[in-house]
Amino acid sequence: MTNQTNVYLALEDINPPVDLRTKVLQSVETAIEKKNRNRKIIGFSVFSISMISFIGFAISAVRAFQQSGFGTYSSLIFSDSKLVLSNFGEFMFSLIDSLPFFTITITLVSVLLILVSMQYMTNSKKELSYSF
To answer: Which of 2, 42, 78, 113 could, after both became Cys, cross-link 50 (CB 3.0–4.6 A)?
Structure first.
């Protein structure tokens, strides 16, 4: 007899407890329920925080646009187009210079967080389970 045969013969003598399967399945089920609950809590928390931050940053962006004079510069395109076309390069630089880039960037980051958290929340609606 080889060593492998001896190992297999020794394994046949091992008898696990009768309730081992139910205990393992219960612990797996408990772990899955805990993971599902944590995913839902985290998804809702991130979504709530990102919505609150988006509202604050959107209000800040509107105020920054009002203070920057971007609306005044952009209205020149429709009111005095000959002047704009004759000085197009300078006009575009002044228009770009009047944009509040930092506020726009922060607002777009909060929109991205909302989209990511919505995706996470929709994925957390799918219940994890096990199957045999």
So the answer is: 113
